Amino acid sequence: MKVLQERSLAPFHTFGIEVQAQQILVAETAADLVAIWQDEQYRTLPKLIVGQGSNLLFCEDFAGVIVLNRIAGITVTETESAYLLHIGAGEDWHQLVCETIARNMPGLENLALIPGCVGSSPIQNIGAYGVELKDICQYVDTVELATGEAHRLSAQACQFGYRDSVFKHALKDSHAIVAVGLALPKAWQPNISYGPLAKFDPETVSAKEIFEAVCQVRRAKLPDPAVLGNAGSFFKNPVVTQARRDTLLAQFPSLPSYEMADGSCKLAAGWLIDQCGLKGYQVGGAKVHEQQALVLVNAGGASAQDVLTLASDVVCAVQQTFGVTLEHEVRFMAAGQETYLEEMLP
Ligand SMILES: Cc1cc2nc3c(=O)[nH]c(=O)nc-3n(C[C@H](O)[C@H](O)[C@H](O)COP(=O)(O)OP(=O)(O)OC[C@H]3O[C@@H](n4cnc5c(N)ncnc54)[C@H](O)[C@@H]3O)c2cc1C
């Protein structure tokens, strides 16, 4: 375990908002995590595990200990039908994707360039271009922080849903993810169902071509957090019943929607925000991105309050225009625990 001298969280989350923690620690093993949770000096303080902070908004200074998860290591084994990867939770997700593509182990190409650590990927079941973590996840290894007990959860036990899993509910705060197991089938099938990938011929396309196309589209569409602070899609795509979608379609015929396996419909949150004329709308240093309305950015010196006010304005506008309530995908942290937009407004 390492103890950092700095207290500023700006370098440790992609929004780049100037907030402080009481203490920042680095955990390199599961034992480090358990030791921190059992250490007398930290026992009474709030504690939060952070990967790369790419799905986080710190709404105020954190009155406790931030634990950076840096558990490393990747092992690959093979069966007749699949490559099996066991990955330490602190590994970088995109580096893992690059490495598998370079080693001719296809399956992760659609999930290229998603920021963050491998250990965070099951929490919101990361997804892009028609693929979600649940499609390739075999298991998730956790440690119970109060007891040090190790557990292995099957993919089914993870209860994956749209940007959701058991780690946001029953296991939140009590368990840390220490490793993730992925299975990449050797009988690879390209997934080119999503717009910009539909140009490819499924018979001839390679995983590398899909990887490169995904990287190109993402670089063109999404702001790079290293240049312009952001946490990716700020809101989830709202899920409504077919009947509700049909009512909206009658009024807004160009409304993009996507039917899900369970019969409900996902609406494009970015489109809803764009239709409200909010691209480029700014509150203090926080702004709705000019090209991608679903992303709120730190245009320079944004305070957490700027982002909260902006997010609230966006939610109100979409509610008024479409009668649809947007939920934030980004996790909000108050001084001691997770919070939500409604709770942070005056
Ligand atoms: C430019 C950009 C593009 C993005 N695109 C996508 C996308 O296409 N699809 C998508 O799904 N997401 C996307 N995201 C969101 C983000 O990349 C993912 O949510 C990612 O998995 C977050 O990883 P992280 O390590 O940064 O997590 P963090 O933000 O550090 O943490 C997220 C949450 O997980 C908890 N946590 C982290 N590590 C652990 C652990 N080891 N054990 C227990 N709890 C833990 C934290 O306490 C926090 O509550 C994007 C973000 C950005 C900035």
TrEMBL record:
Belongs to the MurB family. It catalyses: UDP-N-acetyl-alpha-D-muramate + NADP(+) = UDP-N-acetyl-3-O-(1-carboxyvinyl)-alpha-D-glucosamine + NADPH + H(+). Its cofactor is FAD. Pfam families: FAD_binding_4 (PF01565), MurB_C (PF02873). It comes from Photobacterium atrarenae. Cell wall formation. The keyword Cytoplasm applies. Pathway: Cell wall biogenesis; peptidoglycan biosynthesis. Keywords: Cell cycle, Cell division, Cell shape, Cell wall biogenesis/degradation, Cytoplasm, FAD, Flavoprotein, NADP, Oxidoreductase, Peptidoglycan synthesis. Residues 17-187 form the FAD-binding PCMH-type domain. This is UDP-N-acetylenolpyruvoylglucosamine reductase. It is found in: Cytoplasm. GO terms for molecular function: UDP-N-acetylmuramate dehydrogenase activity. It comes from the Bacteria. InterPro entries: FAD-bd_PCMH, FAD-bd_PCMH-like_sf, FAD-bd_PCMH_sub1, FAD-bd_PCMH_sub2, MurB, MurB_C, MurB_C_sf, Oxid_FAD_bind_N. The active site is at residues 163, 233, 329. Its EC number is 1.3.1.98.
